[in-house]
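Quick log. Single chain, no ligands specified.
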Amino acid sequence: MPIAMAPAKDTILIITDNEASRLSLGKSFRDAGYEVLTVPNELIALDMLQQTTPSLVVADSETCSVDKLRLHKALKATPIVAFREQETPCSEEECLEDLERGADLALCNQTTKALIARVRAILRRKELPAQAAGQSAAGGVQMDLERHEVRVHGKLVELTPKEFQILRYFLESPSRVFSRQEMLNCVWGEGYALEEHALDVHIHSLRQKIEENPAKPKLIVTVRGIGYKLRAES
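-> predicted structure:
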């Protein structure tokens, strides 16, 4: 079955020191309708960012420092997909490490078709929100998507990329109850194998930063037996 064409000419930046992978992935993404840039390491990538900003980055986390990419001002709000081509399956710890370093999705030994499908899904979500040009707010928490900033009662707080995404989904759907699996699908991508406990860890960390009393949260509340919701009137 041929790969479906991308609806728009988004630009994908591919970073890997494996020349065969650069050529293969580059061709596959071009065939899928994307503009493609390929470089062997993050140093060249960071230099390239002086002239252009990609729609999404696909980076080999075994040879590329994802955290250095995320720190660059041009990539603050750009999705980064980390992949590994190791022969043995990735452990959950390796995947979580990639995510904590700033990746929006961590993949291991995925087929090119699956990688492109996940990239397309991420870019589709990026284009969805009608509030992308404005702000979202609830319970003293304000999110500015253009500046990629979050303020709590006017005070700027630093969130990890995953915390930012989780909070964004809550703010865009106040009072909606998200099951743990639903939120995992929203943030990490459908079909991505990650234990629900990983979400609980991120929610705990997010509460520490935005709740007045994290031990008794009033904004992001637990719905017993289901998951979480944002209490907009808090």
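Residues 132-230 form a domain with the Arc Repressor Mutant, subunit A fold (CATH 1.10.10.10).
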